[in-house]
Amino acid sequence: MKNPENIIEVRDLEINFHTYAGEVKAIRDVSFDLRKGETLAIVGESGSGKSVTTRSLMGLLAPNAEIKKGSIMFHGEDIIKKSEKDMQHIRGKDIAMIFQDPMTSLDPTMRIGMQIAEPLMKHKGLKKKEAIAQALEMLKLVGITDPEGRINDYPYQFSGGMRQRIVIAIALVCYPEVLIADEPTTALDVTIQAQILDLMKDLQNRIDTSIIFITHDLGVVAGMADRVAVMYAGKIVEYGTVDEIFFNPQHPYTWGLLNSMPTLDTASGSLRAIPGTPPDLLDPPVGDAFAARSDYAMKIDTEKEPPFFKVSDTHYAATWLLHPDAPKVTPPAEIVRRQKKFAAMQKPKAPISNSDSKE
Amino acid sequence: MPDARKKILEVHHLKQYFNVGKRDEVRAVDDVSFDIYEGETFGLVGESGSGKTTAGRAIIHLYEPTSGEIIFNGQDVSKLHTKKQMHAFRRQIQMIFQDPYASLNPRMKVKDIVAEGIDIHGLAKDDADRTKQVEDLLETVGLNKDHSSRYPHEFSGGQRQRIGIARALAVEPKFIIADEPISALDVSIQAQVVNLLKELQVKQNLTYLFIAHDLSMVKYISDRIGVMHYGKILEIGPADEVYNHPLHAYTKSLISAVPVPDPEFERNRIQVPYDESREKDDKKRRMVEIAPGHFIRASEDEVAMYTQRAVDAGLING
After folding, report:
1. Averaged pLDDT score across all residues of chain B
2. Where is the signal peptide (chain A) (predicted)?
């Protein structure tokens, strides 16, 4: 899969954490690509490894983490092999990150103008005056009202949504090639969330950034992503285009996730919860890690780990259900409904309208 | 309201101000009225700062209301003054909190957390009875009795929320205020907890006040919904009706912002902006029943407009 437009290529990544209880196998053989200008969403529950994966791209792993195997290629160079000093040149300039909590990711004692200008002075060697001028432009871009009047304010003087705009301004001020957004809107209200997501889409179009979007909110994924990777217990279990994952999912875990959300027309009755809890990664189960919680588990799921089966050129899923010898199963009703929609969508091959839903 | 069902809670013109008379006076809850019927789930939704949590806390009498009445089971809560009266009141009404990590004492064993209410209200005959009650409660919420001698840090978020639910159930309350009980949990675990709450409601005839900002989940669990904004309730009605045919512009805007797990829907989403200036004019507004059981906070001259909207939505005949 040598794709010329790949910006980041992660191959066979394995990361362990050393803890008092033993080795936690947080990332177990993860590979994926990030293409230019796209938004790749990584979905999964807490502990599935989505945040650890992206932290490794930034070189921000905790001291007790150890990269056992694999490579992260960025512009033909392996990020894993880079020194902390080299990483400091990449971090914030080529690869930037937005964190979940806008309340704690800003420096409370520093004026916001300075916080936005800082990366410019560090990475681009701009003088303070020029940097502040550009910071002002950035504040306008992210939609802070009265930017001239507010550039010297401190973070506590802003609301949560405004602070997240400032965090985005800091992340984008150097026009990074890659933006990693780790649950950027989880702490915000839906109305503010919608504004921030629109802002990110708009900025992506303008400066052609590739985005890795981490979230557990499937609604947000549906609106933001071009492609989706579903993680479970330290592995990617399914990946494909956003339509393939939402309308033609193949892995029982993806089914479970989509099924456990109330949709617009979910009538009363009970939600289809996924029973049980994710496995302990101190001692990951043999075979398909989701087998213990899956209604569709077969004997082989507890014996041998499923490889990726190809569904389409862009869609792969690691489940034995796709093996030619596997018995035919009927997915949950909601998934069948979605798959029908997918079949209907395939026929006319409608051109994907990328018209922004702004207004 | 022509309804034969029994009202378990009546809130009349509740006002909860903070820092009254100072420069930084906050009108967190400002003239809010609603009723909750026995056995139903009433969902209270709104953005952060809308006053939904304050309203919940005022009902359980964690604050002294600035003005207004809270009548629980025919009794005015603000007139409960002696310790004994409060004691009896709080046995009937319990709370489940948002953060399963912060709402359990990390130094207490699960059995002591769950039994705290039992101890305070003297509901156990002896130690064996106490242990039995705790074990039954843990089983009710889907944990097992081996868990009782563990500490909170040994549990996942979903399990902790179950412990919080067991603690609330320990005193056999009639009414539970659940303040964002699932927002800190993963999607697959959220559904488990919501199902548990629904199941318990049927089994133990509980009434819920469900406070949340996740509209799709609120719509799913609630019989009726109240929408709060800036300390006021703007719309109250049956859950499906409020969700599918919102009459107030704010509700419309709020619902249009909810992300839907459907890429096709998302590509065609139209977000409705909300102009809040109208809320701030000085017109007198009150709750008006536009359609049966569907109330809007409106001024006299707005009633005709809302009535027309209800006719257009097919809620009432024109």
Report:
1. 91
2. none
pLDDT of residue B1: 45
**Residue B142, min C-alpha distance to chain A (Å):** 10
Per-residue pLDDT reduced to its tens digit, B125-149: 999 999 999 999 999 998 888 889 9
Task: For residues B244 and B294, give the distance between their C-alpha atoms in angstroms, rounded to a whole number.
Answer: 13
Listed in sequence order, the residues at least 6 apart from A227 whose beta carbon sits closer than 8 Å to its beta carbon are: A38, A39, A40, A41, A239, A240, A241, A242, A314
* B245-to-A219, B34, B240 alpha-carbon distances in Å: 21, 20, 8
* Exposed e or buried b per residue across B128-149, where buried means at least 16 C-beta atoms within 10 angstroms of its C-beta: eebeebbbebbebbbbeeebbe
The CA distances from residue A324 to A108, A310, A314, A336, B193, in Å, are: 58, 11, 19, 20, 37
Burial class (CB in 10 A: 0-12, 13-18, 19+), A2: exposed
A73: its two tokens: 């290629």
Compute the mean pLDDT over every residue in chain A, rounded to the nearest whole number. Answer: 89
**What architecture (CATH level 2) is domain A34-61+81-225?**
3-Layer(aba) Sandwich (3.40)
Q: Which of B192, B219, B220 sits opposite A273 (nearest CB)?
A: B192
Quick check: B254 and A274 CB within 8 A? no
| Low-confidence stretches of chain A (pLDDT beneath 70) | 1-4, 263-270, 348-359
CB contact under 8 A, B158 and A277: yes
CATH number, span B7-312: 3.40.50.300
Query: How much is the pLDDT for B3?
Result: 57
Give tens-digit pLDDT for B58-97.
999 888 899 999 999 989 988 888 889 988 999 999 999 8
Tell the burial category of A3 from Cβ atoms under 10 Å away from its Cβ (0-12, 13-18, 19+): exposed
Pairing of strands B207-212, B41-45: parallel
Q: Which amino acid is at B184?
A: A
With CB atoms and an 8 Å threshold, state whether A268 touches B220: yes
Q: What angle do CA B272, B276, B277 make, to 5 degrees?
A: 135
Would an 8 Å CB–CB cutoff place A158 in contact with chain B?
no
Residue type, B258: V
pTM of the model: 0.86
DSSP A91: B
* Contact of B222 with B43, CB cutoff 8 Å: yes
Taking CB atoms and an 8 Å limit, are A262 and B254 in contact across chains? no
Instruction: Identify the band that residue B188 occupies on the pLDDT scale cut at 50, 70 and 90.
Output: confident
Contact A231, A274 (CB under 8 A): no
Q: Do B263 and A160 touch (CB under 8 A)?
A: no
Q: What is the DSSP string of A302-319?
A: GTS---PEEEETTEEE--
C-alpha–C-alpha distance, residues B279 and B162, integer Å:
40
What is the CA angle A222-A226-A231, rounded to 5?
70
The answer to whether B194 and B221 have CB atoms below 8 angstroms apart is yes
List all residues of chain A from 176 to 205 with a beta carbon under 8 Å from chain B.
189-194, 198
Report d(CA A273, CA B142) in Å as an integer.
14
Sheet holding A22-35, edge to edge: A22-35, A6-19, A65-74, A77-78
A 247-306 residues inside an 8 A Cβ radius of B: 247, 256-258, 260-264, 266, 268, 270-275, 277
- Which residues of chain A form CATH 3.40.50.300? 34-61+81-225
Which of the four pLDDT bands, split at 50, 70 and 90, describes residue B275? confident
